[in-house]
C-alpha cells in the first residue's frame, strides 16, 4: 500500500460559486524556469524550517538524498517514464540540493522536470500505438502494477515491455467492467492523451511547489508549501460557509481517492460516496460527457467538481477495495452549502439486553457522536451568549441523556480528525473535576500545559470512548486524558497517531515586494504529550479493549507515513487519577468481548469485508489471462455480496441479490438510508462492552429499562443490541 503524505491532501469541504474552470493551457518547455518569486520564497522557506520547525533537521547531504527520492516519487511514482540513466545523471547533481536550496538555485529541479516531461511524451506515443494492435488475452502472463520499489528501466526496450502489459491490463480492466472493445480504445486513447496534456499543463509555479514539497516532506509529512493557487483552495477548504460536494480528496498514484466524506455536505447527506472510493470520471449536469480523470492532477479534478450551488455533478466511482477491473457506479450530487448543523454532536439511546434471556430486562445506554471539535469563533467574538461549540453541545446532550435515565454513555469519536485544542480540553473537563489535560512542547523545548480549570463535572457515571484508526489530533487528546485519569475505558482501534501542531505562515508578510506571489508554508512547530508523559505521536492511543480489525495497523495512520516524527516521552505532570476499579475488570471485559465477536456472524462478516479490502490493497500483480482474471473478479463480487448479506441477516434485514447484466448498476442494491441506519456493528459491540462493564461493577442495578422483546433491532431506537 502506498504511503500518502497529508501534504498531498486537497480539501474539498466546500468550493467557490463558480462554473467549472477551463483546463490550464499547455506550457512551452522554455517557460519552465524558476521565477524571481520562487527564489524569494525559497529563502524564506529554508529560513523558517531551519529556525522554527520542531524537528530542526539539518539541511545537509543526507537530507539532500531524501529530497531527491521524494521528488522522483512525486514525478514518477510508478517508475514508468524515467530511465535508470536519467536517475543516475540527476542523482549526481542531487547531492547538491542542500546547497541549491540555501542559494535559491532551482535549475536542477526544473531540468529534471523537463526531462520527465519528455519521457512522458515518449511513453504516451508508444501507448497510443499499442492501442492500434489487438491484445491477446489468452496468454498466461501477469502485470506488476505496484512499482514503487521496482528497479528503474535500463533502456527503452524494458519500458516498451512494461507499457505493453500496462495497456493490456487497462484494456482488460475495462473489458471486465462491461465496456465494448471500440469504447475501450476510445476511453484509453483519451486517458493516455490526458496524461500528456496534464504533464504539459504544469507551469513554473507547479514545478516549484512539487520540488519544495519534496523538501518539506523529507522533514515530516505535515509540513507543506502551498503555492498561491493552492493557498486559495486551502482557504476555501477551511471555510464551511461556501459551496461544494463535501469531501476530502488525495492523490494515490494515478487515482483520485476519497479520504473523508464531510458530514453535512452533499456527499455525506447522500450516503453515496464513501471513504476509500476512487473518482475515475466526472460529468457536468445530468447528461454532460463523462471525463475520464485517471492520471489527472488533483487540482484539475477539483476544478471539474467545482460549480455553483444547485448545479449537478456526476461522478464515476470505483468502490473501495475493488480492483482496477471492479464494477464502477455513477452517482449524481447537487452542489450545496455545507450544513453546519450536520457537523454538530448528536445523541441517540440504545436499549441493550442484559444477560439472562428475554425476561432479564434491558438497560438504556446513551451514545454521543462527536464528528469534530468545533467552535463558532465569530459568534463568540461577537459576544453571542448562545455560540455553538462541541463542549456546549455535548453538555446539553449529557443532560438530556441523564433525564432519559441512561445507565452509561459512549462518546463516539470514530473518524473524528480533530479540530480545536481548546474544545478538546474543555470537553475533557465535562468528565473530570480539574487538572491538566495535555502538554504541548514547542521547538525551543518549552512545555505549556492546557488545563481544565472549571471545577465540577457534567457527568460522573460509567463512560467509554469509542475510537478508530481515523480518530486523530484533538480526538486523541481527549481519549488519552480520559484513559490517564482512569475516568473511562477506551474501546476500538489504535488511533491515527497525529501528535503534532502545525502553524500556517503567509510568506508574503515577510516580503513586501513579492506582490502576493509567494504562497504559504504550513510547518510543524510543536508536539502533544499526555499528562503521564507519553506522546500521542506515531503510536496514537492504544485502547483498553482493542476491537479486532481486518486491516494491518502498521499501514494505517501516522506510523504509515514517510518521515513521521517518532514516538517520544517527557516527564509526567501532577494529576489526580480517579480511584475507580474499572481497570481491574479489563481482563474480564476483554475476554467477554473476544468470545462474543468470535461467534457474532455480523462482526465476522465485517472483518471478512475488511480483510478483502486489505488483500486487494496488498496485491501487486494481476493476471492478464482473461479467464483467470474474470474468475478472480467474479469471486470477489460473490464474497462481497455474501458478507453484506450476513450482516443484514444478523439485523433481520432481507438479503440483496448480486446484480448481473446491467453494468451501470451497482453490484448490490443499496438500501434506503433509514434502513442503513438500523445497524452499526462496531457501535453495537461498544454498547455490549459498556453493558458488560455495568454488570461486572454492579452499576446496572436499579437502571433496568422496561422489559421489551429481545432482539438486535428495537423498534423505538436506531439500533438494538443483544448478547
Topology readout:
Blueprint: E1 10-12, H1 36-52, H2 61-75, H3 84-94, H4 97-102, H5 107-130, E2 142-144, H6 156-176, H7 181-200, H8 204-216, E3 224-226, H9 228-238, E4 243-244, E5 247-252, E6 255-261, H10 266-270, E7 278-284, E8 291-292, H11 298-305, E9 312-318, E10 329-334, E11 336-337, E12 346-353, E13 362-369, H12 377-381, H13 390-403, E14 408-412, H14 421-429, E15 435-442, E16 447-452, E17 463-467, H15 474-484, E18 489-492, E19 500-506, E20 520-529, E21 545-546, H16 586-599, H17 601-618, E22 621-623, H18 626-650, H19 673-676, H20 681-697, E23 704-705, E24 720-721
Parallel strand pairs: 12-24, 13-14, 14-17, 17-18, 18-21
Antiparallel strand pairs: 1-5, 2-22, 3-20, 4-11, 5-6, 6-7, 7-8, 7-9, 9-10, 12-13, 13-23, 15-16, 15-20, 19-20
Description:
- It is a single chain.
- This protein is an alpha+beta fold and 723 residues long.
- It folds into three domains: 21-222, no CATH class; 242-339, PDZ domain (Pdz3 Domain, Roll), CATH 2.30.42; 344-580, 2-enoyl-CoA Hydratase, Chain A, domain 1 (Alpha-Beta Complex).
- Helix content is 37%, strand content 16%.
- The protein contains 20 helices and 24 strands.
- The strands form five sheets. Strands 12, 13, 14, 17, 18, 21, 23 and 24 form an eight-stranded mixed sheet that branches. Strands 1, 5, 6, 7, 8, 9 and 10 form a seven-stranded antiparallel sheet that branches. Strands 3, 15, 16, 19 and 20 form a five-stranded antiparallel sheet that branches.
- Strand 5 (247-252) and strand 6 (255-261) form a beta hairpin.
- It starts with 9 loop residues before the first strand and ends with a strand.
